[in-house]
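Our working data are protein records whose layout never changes between entries. An example says more than a description, so a record of this kind follows.
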Amino acid sequence: MEKNQRFVDGQKLLAQVDAEAADNVMDSLKVVAPDVSRYILEFAFGDIYARPGLSLQQREMITLTTLLTQGDTADQLDVHVNGALNVGLKPATIVETVIQCIPYVGFPKVLNALTVIKKILQERHLVPDESN
């Protein structure tokens, strides 16, 4: 895969958001659709995330709300909830951001997103694990 400046910039930004998840996604696409990895790095992160005007925290909040409104995006929500925490968003801010969506997208999508958030917060020991 040729590494142009957009690719390099995208790698740097994605590493700030969630380097481990990024590696997992890129590895999972390597065999079947390696170009999609390049699109994610160059376009989503090298072009869009690199734009001036919004912080990484703001970008992650927007990403979380966009993913939850689509529904059926648990895997992507997992990556971006971790990313939101990695760039400094507090758990309460993430939860409140999701709650704000209830009047606009409804309880089912918000509850699904909260399920993903709870799992990640428990894995990261940021809330008690109720299974213990």
Observations:
- The mean pLDDT is 92.
- The first helix runs from residue 5 to 29.
